[in-house]
Amino acid sequence: MLIDGHGRTVNYLRVSVTERCNFRCQYCMPEKPFSWVPKENLLSFEELFLFIKVAMDEGVDKIRITGGEPLLREDLDSFVKMIHDYKPDIDLALTTNGYLLPQVAQKLKDAGLKRLNISLDSLKPEVAHKIAQKDVLSQVLKGIDKALEVGLGIKINMVPLKGINDEEILDIMEYCMERNIKVRFIEYMENRHANIELRGMHGKEILSRVKEKYTIRALGREGASPSFNYIIEENGYEFGLIDPHKHDFCESCNRIRLTAEGFLIPCLYFDEAMSIAEHIKKGDVESASHVLAQVLKDKPKENRWSEENPNEEDISSRAFYETGG
Ligand SMILES: Nc1nc2c(ncn2[C@@H]2O[C@H](COP(=O)(O)OP(=O)(O)OP(=O)(O)O)[C@@H](O)[C@H]2O)c(=O)[nH]1
Ligand SMILES: C[S@@+](CC[C@H](N)C(=O)[O-])C[C@H]1O[C@@H](n2cnc3c(N)ncnc32)[C@H](O)[C@@H]1O
Ligand code: SF4
Ligand code: SF4
User: Fold this and answer.
1) Has this prediction a pTM greater than 0.90?
2) 269 CB near ligand 2 (under 6 Å)
3) What is the C-alpha to C-alpha distance for residues 315 and 7, in angstroms, rounded to an integer?
4) Atom of ligand 2 nearest to the CA of 28
5) Atom of ligand 3 nearest to the CA of 24
6) Strands across the sheet with 12-16, in order?
């Protein structure tokens, strides 16, 4: 079992398979980074899997593939299959912007993927375009339909932004309600890579928008998930709120992150990371395990996103597209 320096059990590994993306979401990667990680520095699926096996043997039973945009990595289904075949019962999920799903959803399902979390910030083509800086909506909606058709479990993630998509909270919720999909509203997490003009909505403001039309009741957190769940009294629909500006979900943090370059990242907020790339490239899993032990020992207690108006020092310098969120 993997236990961190604060006594928390770590059973969730988020694996970012690429930092590249076909969108330029203003809250994540508004411009192409000055330089991409050169392709030769990326770990192959076989190399990533060497480490993943160690983690699974130590008790990791939930793996999420993410990015950048994970569907940009060629033959992703072969990677899904490696993980699935090693432990078919594992909670194996992927987070995507959905754009390439029409082409790959069936292959991913056949390879053993169970669940997808898809980002959907607007149902208006021009607003979706403004956020992603590309005309994406119709393709993303086709992707959601395809994923439903092939029988993958789906959740939708929306980041409400003041003056941009904040009027669409109920529309997105009702789109999900009609399809029996859970939506999670995510507080915008301030970071230095985002467009500095963005202002996120506080969890309370998001809930007020829902309360304009529905009566809601708090259900609580689902295990170690960052999502706090609510139920709509009128029809029993459940949705979630991811509110990192409160730090209570850090108390039960159960996750670490592995990047495509082989960095182990102990916390989404902080820059600290340790590389296992050299060890993994030599097939030295024992040394990689030592690095993992060190990362767990040093895992921070909580993030520093502030509940008040963010000061300079409350803004994370870690890029979401590198860590995979
Ligand atoms: N602050 C913080 N945010 C997180 C963490 N993990 C995920 N998130 C954010 O929560 C949002 C949703 O993450 P997902 O990739 O859908 O994964 P998840 O919430 O773990 O998914 P489930 O397994 O379906 O609960 C993203 O915006 C993430 O950045 C975390 O450890 N800390
Ligand atoms: C970094 S993306 C990677 C996977 C995929 N490209 C996608 O967009 O779903 C993972 C999640 O992080 C969220 N995210 C990115 N930047 C964020 C920010 N600054 N604040 C809150 N959530 C953010 C996205 O909305 C997405 O749900
Ligand atoms: S949130 Fe996802 S889709 Fe948007 S730029 Fe970041 S990695 Fe790409
Ligand atoms: S912000 Fe850091 S400590 Fe908190 S839940 Fe996320 S990874 Fe864990």
Assistant:
1) yes
2) no
3) 27
4) 16
5) 5
6) 216-221, 227-232, 238-242, 182-186, 153-158, 115-119, 91-96, 62-66, 12-16, 255-258, 263-265, 274-275
Domain range summary for the chain, segments of one domain joined by +: 12-151+246-323
Query: Is 29 annotated as ligand-binding?
Result: no
Q: What would the DSSP string read from start to end of 92-132?
A: EEEEE-STTHHHHHHHHHHHT--EEEEE---SSHHHHHHHH
Q: pLDDT tens-digit profile of 83-104?
A: 999 999 999 999 999 999 999 9
- In this prediction, residues 99-128 reach a mean pLDDT of 98
How many residues in total does the chain contain?
325
Strands (E), 140-294: 153-158, 182-186, 216-221, 227-232, 238-242, 255-258, 263-265, 274-275
Helical residues (DSSP H) of the chain, grouped into ranges: 45-57, 76-86, 101-111, 125-132, 137-150, 169-178, 203-211, 277-281, 285-297, 320-323
Q: How confident is the model at residue 247 (pLDDT cuts 50, 70, 90)?
A: confident
What are the pocket residues of ligand 3 if the criterion is a CB atom closer than 6 Å to any ligand atom?
21, 23-25, 28-29, 67-69, 97, 119, 320-321
For residue 132, give the ligand 3 atom closest to its CA.
4
Q: Model ipTM? A: 0.98
Identify the pLDDT of residue 46: 97
CATH of domain 12-151+246-323: 3.20.20.70
Three-class DSSP category at 53: helix
Name 274's bridge partners: 264
* pLDDT per residue as tens digits for the range 192-231: 999 999 999 999 999 999 999 999 999 998 888 889 999 9
Residue 215, class by beta-carbon neighbours within 10 Å (0-12 exposed, 13-18 middle, 19+ buried)?
exposed
Q: What is the CA radius of gyration of the chain?
A: 19
Two tokens, residue 62: 């939930």
Cα separation of 10 and 30, whole Å?
32
Q: Is the pLDDT of residue 32 over 90?
A: no
Residue 47 has pLDDT above 80, yes or no: yes
**Ligand 2 pocket check for 228: Cβ under 6 Å:** no
